[in-house]
Design goal:
The model has no long low-confidence stretch (mean pLDDT 93). It is globular and about 35 Å long. Strands 4-3-2-1-6-5 form a six-stranded mixed beta sheet. The chain has helices at 3-6, 71-75, 88-97; strands at 13-15, 21-30, 36-42, 49-52, 56-59, 64-67. The protein is built from three helices and six strands; from the N terminus they run αββββββαα. The protein is of the alpha+beta class. It has a single domain, classed as Photosynthetic Reaction Center, subunit H, domain 2 (Photosynthetic Reaction Center, Chain H, domain 2), CATH 3.90.50.10. 19% of the residues lie in helices and 31% in strands.
Length: 102
């Protein structure tokens, strides 16, 4: 995924692995280890959830981000502030939550 293209998808819908809308892309982070994480704000929620970007795909035709995870997992993912710097501990928690190898 082209990280530079993510900026164009801020505030666009995020769809789960079944093609159902979850919420919107609020922000993203690139970790010190060059891993991508997405900040997804689920519909009806005020908090941003951290989702590993390894399972994300940009769908330009539908102007959305598709992720390879269930929406229920996103809604219970670790919470974080878009303006803060992502720390290794939180990266590990997000990867563990989604069963993604670190």
């Amino acid at each position: 995924m082209q990280i530079s293209r993510l900026e164009d998808f801020i505030d666009e819908e995020v769809w789960d692995h079944r093609g159902r809308p979850i919420g919107v892309l609020a922000c993203y982070w690139e970790s010190a280890s060059n891993h991508l994480f997405l900040g997804v704000k689920p519909e009806g929620d005020e908090e941003v959830r951290v989702v590993p970007g390894s399972g994300a795909h940009l769908d330009e035709a539908h102007s959305c981000v598709k992720i390879d995870f269930p929406g229920a997992d996103v809604r219970t993912a670790p919470v974080f502030d878009c303006d803060a710097e992502l720390r290794p501990r939180l990266e590990g928690e997000a990867n563990e939550h989604f069963a993604v190898p670190s």
